[in-house]
Amino acid sequence: MTSVKAVAATGQLGTGFKTESLEAAAVGADFIACDAGSTDPGPHYLGSGDTQSAEAAVKRDLSRIIATAVKHGIPALIGSAGTAGGRPHLERTANIVREIAREQNLRFPFATIDTELSPDLVADAYARGELKPLPNAPELTDAGIRSMSRIVAMAGPEPFEAALNQGAQIVLSGRSSDTSLYVAVPHMKGIPMGVAYHAGKILECGAAAAKLRLYPDSMAAILDQDGFVIEPPNPDFACTPQSVAAHTLYENADPFLLTEPGGTLDTSASQYTAISDRAVRVTNSQYIPAEGYTVRLEAASMRGYRTVVLAGIRDPLLLMQLDDYIASAGASIAKKVLDSLGLESNQYTIRWLVYGKDATMGPLEPTPFIEGHEVGVVIDIVAADQKTASGIASIAWHTTLHHPIKEYSGLISSLAFPFSPPSFDAGPVYEFSINHVWAIEDPLSMCTISLSDVH
After folding, report:
1. Cα–Cα distance for residue pair 200/76, rounded to 1 Å
2. 381 and 252 both lie in a single domain
């Protein structure tokens, strides 16, 4: 029976793993993979081109992954380069790969998969009616699409397979599905897609499917025609049926269905069986092909520039009437901003986050009451430029600091600032501006694959 051994170096490139774990897992492996990105930290990285992980941390992880892959003569696949998977993220990470090759005197065929799309290309597809909104997708306009800061397509396994078929050993992709880099090799070797996708879902977060993940680390799985066995190479970790099944549910809108570009993984009939005190076998996972192939698009658009004020309040009289106090202070701030800066309230935004009340969930908070003796307040100001945002912030914190309440007479000071100055310029602000799928006939049409010999 055909079997494939897959290795996840860690859950996200730059978070680290034990060298011993990767070395143990790589013995007899068919490939190593590692995801490098996420939308979890928000739209900033996609819009700005910045990366979440420090370059030194990415280089540390990549150097060990590449060296291990070259040593064992197997492919290494990296997805969603540089956090957001845009062109600058891909290029920056590719330069690190080339630097590692030079420093370690390594030679290998190296492929990059560029999945960034031009706004004009996407706007034309929108005009042809080829974009379908996902739930809670923002409204699109032609002008809005063409002004977006960056748009990426989420690649499936096909571009990875194409790069490997062209002879690549190290493959670095822009934005890609978390599971796609774990599906490519098993699919090429004849493993059923239901098995490949479910194993990929468990592997993509590294050791996160262990019963107790003490720190980021590697994970390994052996796939065959009927299912897969998942087992951590680190002897301090163990998988249980519950821990593996729980990770199947992780980050899923539906507990049993995981939609991918070419179809849907259905785990409703999956069986999780302990075959040792550390390993679990998973069977009965199904894959339902889609009627048409779609790729999910992600985009970020610039909203303005942010300045943030941090403060604490522990005055019991204020805490008893905090909502009214903030509303009254906000009205006073709006008047002062109009008088001092000539700005109407629709030319900027001010958002109040009250930690200790409802800052995390906002209007969805089921118990929006202050139960302690103090709260933390964040005043979030966004305006057209940084100078304006900073100027509004100065008015906001000074006004709120001395805003009166009826219980006191004379000037009061109601805020405690942990820092001087009380406000911080946070730079450009981005928002996610596309959550749509694009129906395409050729899975390779949304990317550009480049192959070179690196040494």
Report:
1. 15
2. no
In this predicted model, what pLDDT tens digit does every residue of 123-143 receive, in sequence order? 999 999 999 999 989 999 999
Of 426, 421, 393, which Cα lies nearest the Cα of 305? Answer: 426
- Phi, psi dihedrals of residue 100, rounded to the nearest 5°: -60, -45
Total structural domains in the chain? 2
Domain match, 234 and 330 both: no
| Residues 449/94, Cβ–Cβ less than 8 Å | no
Q: Where are the beta strands (DSSP E) in 154-279?
A: 170-173, 219-223, 227-231, 257-260, 263-266, 271-274
The span from the CA of 63 to the CA of 79, in Å, is: 16
Same domain, 98 and 30: yes
CA pair distance 31, 372, nearest whole angstrom = 53
Q: Helix, strand or coil for residue 291?
A: coil
Q: Which domain holds residue 392?
A: 303-431
Cα 219 from Cα 239, distance rounded (Å): 10
Q: 368 and 278, same structural domain? A: no
Q: Locate 17 and state its tokens.
A: 């793993």
Q: What is the CATH number of the domain that holds 322?
A: 3.30.70
Q: End-to-end alpha-carbon separation of the chain, Å? A: 37
Measured distance CA(134)–CA(432) in Å, rounded: 13
DSSP for 308-375 reads EEEEEE--HHHHTTHHHHHHHHHHHHHHHHHHHH---GGGSEEEEEEETTTTTTGGG-S-----SS-E
**What is the Cα Rg of the chain in Å?**
25
Beta-bridge partner residues of 32: 7, 76
Query: 350 and 329 in contact (C-beta within 8 Å)?
Result: no
Q: Is the pLDDT reported for residue 1 higher than 80? A: no
Please tell me whether residues 107 and 226 are part of one structural domain.
Answer: yes
Asked if 84 contacts 175 with a C-beta cutoff of 8 angstroms, the reply is yes
Q: What is the pTM of this model?
A: 0.93
Residue the block writes with tokens 């249980």:
240
Quick one: 369 and 399 in the same domain?
A: yes
pLDDT in tens, 4-46: 999 999 999 999 999 999 999 999 999 999 999 999 999 999 9
Is 47 part of a structural domain of the chain?
Answer: yes
State how far the Cα of 365 lies from the Cα of 33, in Å rounded to an integer.
39
DSSP designation for 392? H
Asked if 333 and 400 touch (Cβ cutoff 8 Å), the reply is yes
Q: Identify the DSSP state of 110.
A: E
Q: Identify whether the C-beta of residue 151 lies closer than 8 Å to the C-beta of residue 434.
A: yes
357 and 258, same domain (yes or no) = no
Residues 337 and 385 in one domain: yes
